[in-house]
Amino acid sequence: MRHLLARGAAALALALAAALAFAQDYPARPVKIVVPFAAGGPADVYARFLAQRLQESLGQPFVVDNRPGGGAILGTEIAAKSPPDGYTLLLMSNTHTVNESLIPNRPYQLMRDFVPVAPINYSDLVLVVNPDVKAATLGEFIALAKASPGKLNYASSGPGTPYHMAGELFKSMAGVDIVHVPYKESSAARTAVIAGQVEMMIDAVTTMSPQAAAGKVRALGTTGKARSAVMASTPTIAEAGVPGYEATIWLGVIAPKGTPPAVVARLNAEIAKIAARPDVKADWAKQGAVAMTMSPDEFGKFLADDIVKWEKVVKLSGAKPDQ
After folding, report:
1. How distant, in Å, are the alpha carbons of 233, 274, 275 from that of 271?
2. Residue 225 has what DSSP assignment?
3. With bands split at pLDDT 50, 70 and 90, how would you rate the model's confidence at 159?
4. DSSP string covering 152-180, please?
5. What does the alpha-carbon distance between residue 258 and residue 309 come to, in Å, rounded to a whole number?
6. In the chain, beta strands by DSSP E
7. pLDDT digits (tens, 9 = 90+) for 267-310
8. Do strands 88-93 and 31-35 pair parallel, antiparallel, or not at all (unpaired)?
9. What pLDDT score does 18 carry?
10. Quick one: which of 41, 88, 214, 303 could link to 186 by a disulfide (CB 3.0–4.6 Å)?
């Protein structure tokens, strides 16, 4: 028995040593970050930001690979089927936790086919309307929508995205009937609102606040618990007429199931270092983004809790993947 235990301990020690050596040598070649969203949106912007800094700290290229389509399902499936060797990562958002209940027939399951690596950041959203809409406040917009049920439209970057779910939550809590108009990407949805093709959108503060400042859209309310630091003159939706309303967009990194834990731990540590840098925090704060830092296990619990949260919203709002 002692010999068996000794051999087992030796084998475990060798395995741990091999894993540590692998992690220390990682990465030995370029790493791909699959972004299941189109270029130009928050996920793409922060994926490229992160890729550049990981390349600087780890000495290998981190290449962003945009694979939009199917409400993030296309790119996510590609990542799920990639070798679990640490050389394919997935940039995710709360679109993924929403899709777990909104789109039941997916070719993957988030908590089964991926391992959590690290969160990146979160930001508030902002409800904006085209300047031609005759509503100067959120209260006036709600009154306008109630007076013309089904006549106003709101844009999103597709079913299951934070913009879609924030819109459905707003409809449900404000008691209004506004038609969802899904686009294939957030930039197209943003352009449609600015052009007046669609009356409203709930978009990330990081990408829409400059448009509001330029007068291309009118901001009626932000979605956080408190006012956004970059849009301090705009009330929250909760204080402007929909008590209790709250929604955000957050981003994180996951990897295919089976990715070596030592590699996951190293990536988590490197991403946490980047998020903790004073210059990064200051840069993100100017855009309305706040860094998030968690261990892989903590991030896994966060994902599981978010899946439950959005399942309740999907049921409450009656949201459908084709609406």
Report:
1. 33, 5, 6
2. S
3. confident
4. -EEEESSTTSHHHHHHHHHHHHHT---EE
5. 27
6. 31-35, 62-66, 88-93, 114-129, 153-156, 179-182, 200-204, 218-222, 248-256, 289-291
7. 999 999 999 999 999 999 999 999 999 999 999 999 999 999 89
8. parallel
9. 47
10. 41
Q: Which residues contact 67 (CB under 8 A, 6 or more apart)?
A: 34, 35, 36, 74, 75, 78
Residue 137: both structure tokens together: 């406040």
C-alpha distances (whole Å) from 290 to each of 169, 252, 286, 287 are 23, 12, 10, 9
The mean pLDDT value for 149-173 works out to 93
Residue 212 vs residue 158, higher pLDDT: 212
Domains and CATH numbers, the chain: 2-122+250-317 (3.40.190.150), 124-240 (3.40.190.10)
Which two tokens mark 33?
């970050």
pLDDT at 244: 94
Amino acid at site 214? A
In this predicted structure, the answer to whether residue 5 has a pLDDT above a threshold of 80 is: no
